[in-house]
């Protein structure tokens, strides 16, 4: 019987993509809007792809109406370019991730999903290349909501549609590498497991009071034990 819903962030948590991701977004925006905006310097960590597009273009004076008018084309251009140009060599799985996913997926009480700021198509491509996409039968993505904190209820609803089970706050664990992932857990009063494998240090993450904080996810038995605990305390 399913008892735990474990939702993973992608970038900085499951894997990291080298600079090609930023370059591809810049190229897509230049093709559609004639400018890449502040793509080369903007902080992407923990943000929705849709929000990033708006922010990098707003920073150079592109109006919201112009961004909105061409947004769908920009999104599709980015996704197509990513599929065409990204290679396995551009992606590095975080240490311990494959072992942890193997253990979690083999556990009959655990349901795995994604909670990420990626567009679904490009996010899935990031997982397909290192062959970990199959661990995640569903997810909540940037396509599903306007802000990151709207994604947790979306993920819970999708899990219900797949399983018929309504996961409650003590049943849900959100794993991520930024303050935004910790905030998402608070939306549901769920357990937050923060991991300092992205751009945020452990000290920075600690300030946001996650329930659990790890430097990385390499100690599979310890992480599994934390996930399977009966309460969030």
Looking at the structure, what is the overall shape? globular
Structural class category: alpha/beta
Poorly predicted tracts of residues: none
Mean pLDDT equals: 95
For the largest beta-sheet, the strand count, sense and barrel status come to: 6 strands, parallel
Radius of gyration, whole Å: 17 Å
End-to-end C-alpha gap: 22 Å
Task: Give the CATH level 1 class of the largest domain.
Answer: Alpha Beta
Percent helix, as a range, is 40-55%
Count all strands and give the number. Answer: 8
As a percent range, the share of strand residues is 5-15%
What CATH architecture label of the largest domain applies? 3-Layer(aba) Sandwich
N-to-C SSE series? EEHHHEHEHEHEHEHEH
Characterization of the model:
With 233 residues, this protein is of the alpha/beta class. It folds into two domains: 4-17 and 90-228, HAD superfamily/HAD-like (Rossmann fold); 20-88, DNA polymerase, domain 1 (Orthogonal Bundle). It contains nine helices and eight strands. Strands 5-4-1-6-7-8 form a six-stranded parallel sheet, with helices on both faces. Strands 2-3 form a two-stranded antiparallel ribbon. The longest helix is centred in the first third of the chain and has 22 residues, at 64-85. The model has no long low-confidence stretch (mean pLDDT 95).
